[in-house]
Write a structure and sequence with these properties.
34% of the residues lie in helices and 30% in strands. It is an alpha+beta fold and 178 residues long. The model has no long low-confidence stretch (mean pLDDT 86).
Length: 178
């Protein structure tokens, strides 16, 4: 007696057909591709968030240091502070690490904001990867009441780093002239 090829018991003994095997491979490929896409998207998002967080922390530290530096700046003997718009500000400070001349500057070649202290002559980087920088001193107010608005009432700094825009305004504690 011969058995029919459509007999369920005979079919189970044969295994999977080539069509079934190809269908399983295609389905597993689709699932694997989708999983890899979601994993890659998640890793890219994590990497971007981490990079933005690091950039924000560096900017926060740089802004805080610039605020400390310029808030307590002093002038030279004539209470003068030398401002080169969009480039640098030179001032004297005795409160931070002894009396020293200091220069807060933008290095456009290195795309960084630096702080130079005259005691050691080393320019320290406060912020790197700075693509745009603007520094100005507000001298529009008559601070001493003599009728001529030429005293520094504020120092304004704006810069762009890592695609983010940062701005700060420092109000000096001391009476200064540009």
């Amino acid at each position: 007696m011969t058995r029919s090829t459509t007999d369920p018991s005979r079919r189970a003994a044969r295994g999977m057909t080539l069509v079934e095997l190809i269908a399983v491979i295609i389905i597993l490929g689709i699932i694997g591709t989708a999983s890899a896409f979601f994993f890659a998207t998640g890793m890219k998002g994590f990497s971007l968030a981490r990079s933005n967080s690091n950039q924000a922390l560096k900017a926060e530290a740089a802004v805080e240091r610039m605020n400390i530096e310029l808030r307590d700046m002093e002038g030279d003997g004539a209470k003068r502070v030398y401002v080169t718009p969009n480039v640098s500000i030179q001032y004297r400070s005795s409160g931070l690490s002894g009396a020293a001349d200091r220069t807060l500057a933008y290095d456009s070649a290195g795309k960084r904001i630096t702080l130079l202290v005259s005691t050691d002559g080393t320019a320290r980087t406060l912020m790197d990867d700075v693509s745009a920088f603007h520094l100005s001193a507000d001298t529009s107010r008559d601070m001493d009441g003599k009728g001529a608005p030429n005293e520094i009432s504020a120092v304004n700094i704006d810069f762009t780093s890592g695609g983010q825009f940062y701005t700060l305004q420092i109000l000096p504690r001391n009476f200064l002239y540009p």
